[in-house]
Amino acid sequence: LLKADGTLTFPDGYAPAKVLRCVQIGEALEDQAVVFTEYTQTALNLVEAFEAAGVSATPFTKGAVKKRNEQLEHWRNGGSKILVATKAAERGLNLQAAKTVIHFDHKYVADSITQRTGRVVRVGSKHTEVEAIFLVTEGTVDERVFAITVARAGLGAATTAKSVEDFSRSDLAGVLKVLSEYAKPVALPNRATLSALELTREL
Fold first, then answer.
1. Using the 8-state DSSP alphabet, how is residue 9 labeled?
2. Which one-letter DSSP state was computed for residue 202?
3. Model's pTM, two decimal places?
4. Torsion of CA 28, 30, 31, 33, to 10 degrees
5. pLDDT tens, residue order, the chain (203 aa)
6. In a 3-state reduction of DSSP, which class is residue 99?
7. Closest to 153 (Cα-Cα) out of 109, 104, 116
């Protein structure tokens, strides 16, 4: 984004390590995949990086519905190996042609992980197994956001569990540890808070 705005300049051919790693994964895959990112410019940069490495890629971002549908059908019909999408593809689409979903970056909302992965894990998939890959840059804000997102997802599972057998106390302790370290404070619904306290009373 900074490069696109001209705030920073980079040498020709430069690509962040995370982009390079994503491209490496794409090169190694035998089947189609979907890469999710938060930002349109990041999606376009990833498509460019994939293409430069000889990996066919199609963008799916905000824009005219007709154009997006054409891009989606192009990928579905095998016209490209990688579909690089933003939240425009997060809900309501069937992307079960893919065997792998790559989460390039992350939001604080745990539901986004479920929704994005769920585009690939669909009825009618020809794949018996689907792989979800999360790219996280260690020691950065990226890592903090991911940790909080996963912790919130875990806490949601804990508060809806019917028993401690469904969600062990050790698992819950790990979730609350992440939340206490990374999120100060974290706003939780009263019902969820009470359920969490009830499950952790004997920790």
1. -
2. T
3. 0.71
4. 0
5. 445 555 555 566 667 889 999 999 999 999 999 999 989 999 999 999 999 999 999 999 887 788 888 999 999 999 999 999 998 888 878 788 888 999 998 877 777 777 888 788 766 667 778 888 888 888 888 888 877 777 777 666 555 555 555 555 555 566 556 555 655 444 444 444 444 444 443 43
6. coil
7. 109
Question: Measured between alpha carbons, how far is residue 85 from residues 41, 70, 127, 140, 153 in Å?
Answer: 11, 14, 21, 23, 22
Q: Are 199 and 158 in contact (CB under 8 A)?
A: yes
**201 is written with which tokens?**
């009373």
Contact 144, 184 (CB under 8 A): no
Asked if 67 and 74 count as a contact pair (C-beta separation under 8 A), the reply is no
- Copy the structure tokens of residue 54: 């000889």
Contact (CB, 8 A) for 82 and 50: yes
> Which pairing describes strands 57-60 and 82-85: parallel, antiparallel, or unpaired?
parallel
78 Cβ partners below 8 Å, 6+ apart? 32
With vertex at residue 198, the alpha carbon angle to CA 112 and CA 156, rounded to the nearest 5 degrees, is 5
For tokens 């909080």, the residue is 148
pLDDT at 30: 92
Q: Which residue has the tokens 């300049």?
A: 9
Q: Which of the 8 DSSP states describes residue 89?
A: G
